[in-house]
Structure formats: structure tokens, C-alpha cells
Amino acid sequence: MTFGAIAFAGMSGVIRHLAADMHPFVVAFHRSLFALFWMLPWLIRYGGTVLRTRRPLFYAFRAGFQLVSMMAGFYAVAYMPIADATAISFTAPLFATAGAALILGETVRVRRWAATLVGFAGVLVVMQPGPETFRPVALFALFGAAATAGSFLTVKELSRTEPPTVIVVFMVLYLAPMSLVPALFVWSWPTWSMLPWLVAMGALGTLGHLAVTRGFAAAEMSVVLPFDYLRLPLSAAMAYFAFVEVPDRLTFLGTAIIAVASVYIAHRESVLAKQKMTQQEKT
To answer: In this structure, are residues 226 and 259 in contact, taking their beta carbons and an 8 Å threshold?
Structure first.
């Protein structure tokens, strides 16, 4: 999870750099395309046998959520302070909790609902929804976080039966052609000087997803989730040195509120899961 935080913080910087001369949707397509190139050696080594799965529908759902998340998230990183976009992206676990209750029919009790509301209060602190301070582009970051929550739910389900590497491979196989469609409407060809940055972006994105997927598969979410919040100080430091962006204090305050709420939710889910397992063992 720590390595994933480092990779994604670096990728945010590359996105901002490329978006100065290229539409974020085109940047998103190249991220998917070069991620596919990075996975080709693995595919060639192990062959098509690793792509056999009985859950193609879940992979399609995951790719759809990830496409929306990527497009909205790249747009936000390109046009708003990177630290703010990163902070709002941390609401994904809050959306996942709401989605698990409203869509999957899971039982979410009062304490987790209360923590979810507290977390969204932290979002308001970051977004500062006043007539002079609110940035409409922040809605893209929020929408992207909601889509990421859908991706979280499908990945958690897939990780019960599917290897982490296969999950990532299917994602890039789906995303490369899917992301081309919106990119064509705003298309521009990259220059030769952009090529190293595109290669780096594909590598960082692929390694980041592999690391996070392995993290979710290896331990309970309550254990691994806190490490994801390293993305904020890492992204803030990178944005400061690369783009002279100074994060607002409210960004860190709002992120702290979101983080506390998200970690509490993950802790409660872990406690309830253990209680349920204990009851099943007794019966």
C-alpha cells in the first residue's frame, strides 16, 4: 500500500505535466495503452491460460467503474490543485460503504452511517462550497471517487477467487480500447518529448494498481487503508516542488476528517466480520 501511494503520487505529477499540452481524456487513454505495454511481457511469459476466468461480467463492471474514475480523476488533477484532488479521492471508502448498503444490500448500522456523514463533512471542508471559493472542477474529483468506490467493491469481490496480477491485466485489456472512445473526441498526437513521460505514467499506474490490489488481497481493509493516506503528503510535496502549489490548511484538515471516518468504517467492518465468523463457528 505504501508503494502504491508513492506510485500514484508520482503519476499525478506526470498527469499534470502532460495535461499542459494534451486533453486529460487523451492522457487517460495513453495511460491505459502504455500500461498494457508494461503487462505484455507478463502475458507473453504465462500465455493466455492466465486469462481464463469464470467471472468476465465482474471484470467488465470493474473496467467500467475504473474508466469513469480515471477520466474524472485525470480531469480533476489537470485543472485543480493536486493536493485537493487527492484529498477528495479519499472519499472512495465512504461511497463504498453507502454503495454496499444501497446496492449490495449489506447491513450498515448507525455508527458506520454516522462516520460516513462525518467523512462527507470533511469533503465540504476541502471543497469550500462558497460563492467565492468553490471550484466546479472539484465535482469531477468527487464523481471519480464515487466510481472508484464501485471499482473497490468489484476488486474486493474478485480478489476472493482471482490472483491480483490477473485482476490488473484484465483491467488494462479492457481499458485501452474503452478509453480510446472519449479520447477521440478531443484527440491530439503526443510529441516525441512526451514519450518518456507517457512510458513513466504507464509504469507508475500499473505498479501502483498491482501494489494496492496485492495489499487488499493480503490483509483486512482496516489494516491496509491507513497507508493509502500517505498519498496526500507525498502528492503535496511533489506538487510544491514541481508546480509551486502550496496546499491550503483546510485541505489537510478536511483530509484528516475523511481519513478518521474511513479508517473507523474499515475498523467496524473488520469487527463485525470477525463477530459473524465467530457466530458461524459456534453454530
So the answer is: yes
